[in-house]
């Protein structure tokens, strides 16, 4: 299973953050990356928490592609730029954030550019709650923990609530 996390907390030319996530999924599909499953959109507090920052809209999609992990990552960066993403500083508000979370069961470390599975996914409620929507039995290839186990170890100060379904895509495991 190839997993991509999507997030946004600023409006874009596509509309509010939820609309931006839907448009990003269309942009992913337009690049010959087949979306197999998608989570609900979750409203999540910024991590680290910042009371002055708008909450994020997050989702996770499972995709199928023949692209290598690095080529897929590059397509994701291209989409972020197309949507107006500017990378000035860490943890800043953004119109779109696309993260490659997992590429099948591969463990990859290619410097700082690509680390799979994503090195902080297991501690991020904004990734785990949407992932639970599409595959609650998914197992982290490095730790051997399933989604429920990782959720139990998440910091209790993180907050997330579902706000809507993403399209009419399949929800089967």
Q: Please indicate the count of domains.
A: 1
What is the element string, with H for helices and E for strands?
A: EHEEEHEEEHHE
**Assigned CATH class:** Alpha Beta
Large-scale geometry: globular
CATH-assigned fold name: Alpha-Beta Plaits
Give the percentage of residues in beta strands.
15-25%
Q: Count of helices?
A: 4
CATH architecture verdict: 2-Layer Sandwich
Topology readout:
Layout: E1 2-8, H1 17-29, E2 34-38, E3 41-44, E4 56-64, H2 69-82, E5 97-103, E6 108-110, E7 114-116, H3 125-135, H4 147-152, E8 160-164
Antiparallel strand pairs: 1-4, 1-5, 2-4, 3-4, 3-8, 6-7
Keywords:
disordered C terminus, globular, alpha+beta, two-stranded antiparallel sheet, 173 residues, Alpha-Beta Plaits
Please explain how this structure is put together:
The chain is an alpha+beta fold and 173 residues long. The chain has a single domain (2-164), classed as 2-Layer Sandwich (Alpha-Beta Plaits), CATH 3.30.70. The chain is 25% helix and 25% strand. It contains four helices and eight strands. The chain has helices at residues 17-29, 69-82, 125-135, 147-152, and strands at residues 2-8, 34-38, 41-44, 56-64, 97-103, 108-110, 114-116, 160-164. The strands form two sheets. Strands 1, 2, 3, 4, 5 and 8 form a six-stranded antiparallel beta sheet that branches. Strands 6-7 form a two-stranded antiparallel sheet. A hairpin with a 3-residue loop joins strand 6 and strand 7 (114-116). The longest helix has 14 residues, at 69-82. Mean pLDDT is 90; it is low at 166-173.
